[in-house]
Amino acid sequence: MDFLDSIALPQSHEHLVLLKYLLILTFTLFIPYLAILIGSSLFSVFLKRKSIKENNSNYLKIVRDLVNIAAMNKSVVYALGIIPLISAIFCYVQLLQNSSSSVVVLLILSFITFIFGVILFFSYKNSINLKTIFDQVDRSKINFEESETKETFENYRNEASAKFGKTDLWSMIFFLLTALFFVGAVENAANAEKWGSEYSVLSTIFSLRTLSYFLYMIVLSLSVTSITALFFYYKIRTEEKVDVKYLKFVREFSLSKGLIFTILLPIFVLLRILLTPQNALAYNIFMITLVLLISILFIATFLYIMIKDSKANYVTILVVLTVVLFVSSNAKDQAAFSTTSKVHLAKIEADFVKYEEEFKANLGLATVSINGEDIYNGRCIACHQYDRVLVGPAYKNVLPKYENNKEGLIQYILNPVKVDPQFPAMPSQGLKPNEAKAVVEYMLETYKQ
Ligand code: HEC
Predict the structure, then answer these.
(1) Cystine design at 288: which of 106, 181, 332, 342 (Cβ 3.0–4.6 Å)?
(2) 195, 174, 179, 231: which is closest to 27 by C-alpha?
(3) In a mutational test of the pocket of ligand 1, which residue from 426, 429, 440, 447 has the highest number of ligand atoms less than 8 Å from its CB?
């Protein structure tokens, strides 16, 4: 996209490093949040049916709680969803300028589907809360004084049930699309060979690597959402009185689902390693993957122990391990990006140096050409004059001996040694060889007459 390249600026090495860290930060905020949104909408779609089929209202209750956790309030959506996504787009616009990769396009698609998903999800949350209220009201017992009030009541009730019916399915679809576009972007970023314009957005999405990452993301979402439910009931809602039977239901549900999906994770992690392109593989990726696998192993072990003991006593450890899992998972993606983008980033840095020089030249601050006269006036005249002794000897007395020994003079200036006992030693002027050469040429030229 030419338009995107036009808003990218040449970036210095330091900026590029900063942008890469910013990316890790944005991913560490966004991916877990997206995972919880996907997990709760997926659980909702399946558990709602199950609730009706098995006539067990607990399923519906847990759906309602999960949706309320995920859609806690709007500022969370900004802090963990919208702002990180926009920052990621900004970072990649700069990092991948002139690379004709599909990363930024995919992220923009991801952003759009995310907005739709969130709007639908919040509307679903309202409908599920309203429906709970309406379901608890015994309509036959209400004495509507006016028929109009009754009508309004029925309208709201119907609206809530209608929204309750399909909105979760739609928000789930949009969130899954968000994830698909997002992981497509991450995968494309991690493989410089696929940056040419001959690789379209579609071929990125339907590549084996993107699809395996997508499946990993779904399984991860379900595992993380189960852990989030545990955390919510055992660490946040502790002072509220929750029905003991329901609490047991939540514990058993979250632990078993959490364990199943956590056990599936290593399959996808290994699959993704196998599919990683040669040019992105590096030693650090293996190390980070090891950390990732160990954190998964520990999560599974703690879930298993809790199931066996019928207790939820390791929830905090579980949350810490989940954070480790996310950080290592993101670090792995960024390490792959770092490796594959080395050449590209070096090009941006080189462009930056050129850009900076041109910029200075335009301001009349040319640093490119070394000017002997400038150095001489800036550094030497404080201590030397042609025909007068200042701090150092007069040039007319010392220059003649260097007339045919330009090299010797250069060496002296670069590395002054003690010469004349009448003078103190000349301090080194810290010049570079080409600067010393320029100043010597200038002096010999000027004082030849
Ligand atoms: C801080 C004062 C100071 C500055 C600045 C300084 N010099 Fe000197 N320079 C001296 C002194 C003192 C001596 C005498 C050193 C000696 O004889 O041992 C000297 C000696 C010299 C000599 C004579 C060396 C010889 O073999 O007789 C040359 C040539 C010279 N300076 C060139 C330069 C040039 C070129 C610069 C600027 C890049 C410069 N100096 C900057 C203090 C200075």
Answers:
(1) 332
(2) 179
(3) 426
